Amino acid sequence: MPKDAPPRWDRRMQQRLARGEAAALGELYDRFASLVHGLAHRVLGDEGGADRVTREVFGYIWQHPDAYDPRQGSLRSWVAGIAQGRAVDRLRQAERDRGSREELEEKVRSANAAARADYIVTSMPAPLRAALELAYFQRRDYRQAAADLRISEDEARRRLRLGLQLLSTANALPQEDTAPPGYGPPGYGTPR
After folding, report:
1. What NCBIfam families does the record tag this protein with (predicted)?
2. For residue range 115-154, what is the model confidence (pLDDT) as tens digits?
3. Other C-beta atoms within 10 Å of 45: how many?
4. Could you tell me which residues come within 8 angstroms of residue 167 by beta carbon, excluding any fewer than 6 positions away?
5. Among candidates 60, 62, 51, which has minimal Cα distance to 25?
6. Does the predicted TM-score (pTM) go above 0.70?
7. Helix/strand/coil for 85
8. Residue 71 is inside which H or E element, if any?
9. Is 127 exposed, middle or buried (CB count within 10 Å of its CB: 0-12, 13-18, 19+)?
10. DSSP characters over 126-169
11. Helices first, then strands: H and E counts in the chain
12. CB 136 within 8 A of CB 124
């Protein structure tokens, strides 16, 4: 099954969930549980907390399949948005008593940026990801990456530049601390 689901699959999955098909939830879980858990773990830094967020996210999806609007984006993005929102809420709740509001917000911003970076890397096309992995993990320059990937140096530079441009968006702060319309329960993600 391809990583990036076509919109038709997204709509069919939503319809199956709305009909209460338990098999659909299992299929959705198989497809996106590692994404949800990874994002939650990245934000919380806690395996148990990530497990709880994963259960909460799929429980929410099961109870509110109509909250997803295919016109707003892919099902994968919607699920990731719910996971990130739940994890950030759990982090805020856990940290509320342990530090100043500024420290908490800085930790939340940092965790959000890290989770967005993880999501961007896992969502980017394999050729871009492969070039970035060579450059970052194996310390290859664009010439070495081109040779390793058996592509032209110009193509290696293009892939690295595009991959880094995508990653640079991870630090961009959202306009508001709210989910886009159709991405979460009413009132979910609103500032406190």
Report:
1. sigma70-ECF (TIGR02937)
2. 777 778 777 888 888 898 888 888 888 899 999 999 999 9
3. 13
4. 117, 120, 121, 132
5. 62
6. no
7. helix
8. none
9. middle
10. HHHHHHHHHHHHS---HHHHHHHHTS-HHHHHHHHHHHHHHHHG
11. 8, 0
12. no
